[in-house]
Amino acid sequence: MAFELCINGVGDAFSTRHFGTNFLVRRGDFVLAVDCPDLYRRALAENAFAPLASAEGEYLDVDSISAMILTHLHGDHVNGLEMVAAYRRFVRGGVLPLHASEAVLKDLWDRRLAVSLGVMWDGTQYIHYGPETYFDLRELAADASSAVGPFEVETRRTIHHLPTTALRISDGDVTLGYSCDTAFDEGLNDWLKDCDLILHETSLGPAHTPLYKLMELPAEVREKMLVVHYPDDLVGLEIEELTFARQGQVIQVG
Questions:
Q1: Which residues pair with 33 in a beta bridge?
Q2: Which superkingdom heads the taxonomic lineage of this protein's source (predicted)?
């Protein structure tokens, strides 16, 4: 089998050229989104991924997302969640199945979303809401795979400023690997190397992976790797060793 990868953003936290790195994978009518940066619906609109056959509209929008994974709580991966949650709840109706590590779920509501989503005016009174108003929260296992629709998702802690998870997403036949934000980590690359397609970050600073370290990886790994989360000064760069992912790109995995 194969599934589809829709790359909704490729930028780093400071990019003015791209949306923050995030993507969706879909098999049949199940759409799994990974991370939710600023201007999330605008990114979907501009990229105009084909809608589901069963959905209304001209492009894939947030009301067609079956589930979402959050890798960590930095703004360039989570800032769009407030508006997505409010849209799903108050405009379209319903809650969003949201999967994340124990560390992310522990802080998501009280330290990120409660101030903006916890109290709403309904026209006559203020109503207090909790996370269950917006989300069906589900913890991703740290030491086993977790079922998310037709996918099995494995996680691995990365080397970053705050708890962050890399992912392996499989439909049982083919597997997509995602480094997420991380300092260069040989153990992580060993964990990803057998995936059929790998998305690996690069950016500036000690908690990210320098591009030259990816260029030194074995050719058989680089040949199935796309670079994401790259800063604006790498836009347009072409090198023999690696391929940069393009925003709006649709790829068949498998």
A1: 24, 68
A2: Bacteria
Which tens digit of pLDDT belongs to each residue from 144-201? 999 999 999 999 999 999 999 999 999 999 999 999 999 999 999 999 999 999 999 9
Distance from C-alpha of 126 to C-alpha of 120, rounded to nearest angstrom: 5
Structure tokens at 97: 């199945």
If one counts the domains in the chain, the total is: 1
Q: What are the tens digits of pLDDT across the range 36-87?
A: 999 999 999 999 999 988 777 889 999 999 999 999 999 999 999 999 999 9
The stretches of 145-253 forming alpha helices (DSSP H) are 186-192, 211-215, 219-222
**Distance in angstroms (rounded) separating the CA atoms of residues 68 and 14:** 23
86 touches 41 (CB < 8 A): no
CATH number of the domain within which 157 lies: 3.60.15.10
Q: Enter the tokens of residue 74.
A: 């930095």
Task: Give me the domain span that covers residue 185.
Answer: 3-253
